Each structure stands twice: as C-alpha cells, then as structure tokens.
Amino acid sequence: MLVAATSGTRFVLGSGSAVDFAGLCWICVGTMMFAASAKSLNQVFEKYNDAKLKRTMQRPLPSGHITRPHAIA
C-alpha cells in the first residue's frame, strides 16, 4: 500500500493544476498489482529458504497450502 500511495502522490504532484482521477486510479491499481506479483514471485524463489525459518515456514508455499504453479500463475 505504501508503494501505491507513493506512486499516487507522485502522479498528483506531477499533474500540475488538473488531476486526472481516472489516471490516478489506474496508476494506483497497476502499482498494487505489480507489487503483489513481485511479492508472489519472491515467495516462489525463496520457498526452500522460507521453509527453514520458523518465522516464514507458515507462508502458503512452504506450508503446502498452494502449489508452485499456482503461485506462478
């Protein structure tokens, strides 16, 4: 959410006197989707390391709640 808020703020500040609210919504939604996919891919790459750490072993991939292809999709 912080990344989306930051990109939205930069969009507003760079808009000048008129803010395109539809464009602002698309920027925020696109940024959130990009951040979510990056987080998912990070969990795919770190599955085996996450399984070793007590703090991260309950994440969906190491715990077996979802499969690797499901996470990639």
TrEMBL record:
<keyword id="KW-0472">Membrane</keyword>
<dbReference type="InterPro" id="IPR000537">
    <property type="entry name" value="UbiA_prenyltransferase"/>
</dbReference>
<dbReference type="GO" id="GO:0016020">
    <property type="term" value="C:membrane"/>
</dbReference>
<keyword id="KW-0812">Transmembrane</keyword>
<dbReference type="Pfam" id="PF01040">
    <property type="entry name" value="UbiA"/>
</dbReference>
<dbReference type="GO" id="GO:0008495">
    <property type="term" value="F:protoheme IX farnesyltransferase activity"/>
</dbReference>
<dbReference type="GO" id="GO:0005739">
    <property type="term" value="C:mitochondrion"/>
</dbReference>
<dbReference type="InterPro" id="IPR044878">
    <property type="entry name" value="UbiA_sf"/>
</dbReference>
<protein>
    <recommendedName>
        <fullName>Heme O synthase</fullName>
    </recommendedName>
</protein>
<dbReference type="GO" id="GO:0006784">
    <property type="term" value="P:heme A biosynthetic process"/>
</dbReference>
<keyword id="KW-1133">Transmembrane helix</keyword>
<keyword id="KW-0808">Transferase</keyword>
<dbReference type="InterPro" id="IPR006369">
    <property type="entry name" value="Protohaem_IX_farnesylTrfase"/>
</dbReference>
<keyword id="KW-0350">Heme biosynthesis</keyword>
